[in-house]
Amino acid sequence: MQTMKIAALALAMTAPMGASAATTVFEATGLGLFDGMFGDFFDVDGDDVDVGVTVETDGTSLTSATLLVSDASGVLLESGDAFDAMLSGGTASLSFRNLTGSSASLFGGDTARVIFGFDPGQVAGGTLDPVSVQVTATDLAAIPVPASLPLLAAGIGGLALLRRRRG
């Protein structure tokens, strides 16, 4: 019975594996301006990557939004296709699809979520400072199984069978 458990474990180890957790790809700290209908985020943290987000609303719902992430080499990520927006306390998020740019391949599912963190007491004041921004990938490309893993599983299964014949 013990041998069968070891063999089953060895076979289970050969099954395909992948990653699908949300991962932060870009981060920034900056200044937000919002007047109830129009909003801008300006990256002021002085690092090599600049994140820019512009949002328009009709007062109650999102009408348009753009995302631009760039560095000295050019556009890393860009989209004007926002399809989901949420505001809750000191967190706001926007989801973008139809991503373009040199880093778009990092977003395996072609979807990026931009998460803003800020002091909720300043929302009505027009200027939000500081605002932290994370651009996350929710559907990452699958990470392939190393080629040696099935060989290791077969070896463990073989040792289990050998042990059974001798025991």
Short characterization:
This protein has 167 residues and is α+β, with helices and mostly antiparallel strands.
Give your account of this protein's structure.
It comes from Oceaniovalibus guishaninsula JLT2003. With 167 residues, the protein is of the alpha+beta class. It has a domain at 23-137. 18% of the residues lie in helices and 45% in strands. The protein has helices at 2-12, 148-166, and strands at residues 23-34, 38-43, 50-57, 62-71, 74-79, 81-88, 91-97, 111-117, 127-137. The chain has a 9-stranded antiparallel sheet, with no helix packed on it. The chain is elongated, with a radius of gyration of 24 Å. Residues 7-20 have low confidence and may be disordered.
Tag the structure with descriptive keywords.
single chain, alpha+beta, 167 residues, 2 helices, nine-stranded antiparallel β-sheet, 18% helix
Q: If you average the pLDDT, what whole number results?
A: 78
Structural class: alpha+beta
Uncertain regions: pLDDT < 50 for 5+ in a row?
A: 7-20
Gap from first CA to last CA: 12 Å
Reading side by side through the largest sheet, how are the strands ordered?
Answer: 5-4-3-2-1-9-8-7-6
SS element count, helices: 2
Largest sheet data: 9 strands, antiparallel
User: How helical, in percent, are the residues?
Assistant: 10-25%
Percentage of residues in DSSP E strands: 35-45%
**H/E element sequence:** HEEEEEEEEEH
Globular, elongated, flat, extended or rod-shaped: what is the shape?
Answer: elongated
| Rg, alpha carbons | 24 Å
Query: What's the count of strands?
Result: 9
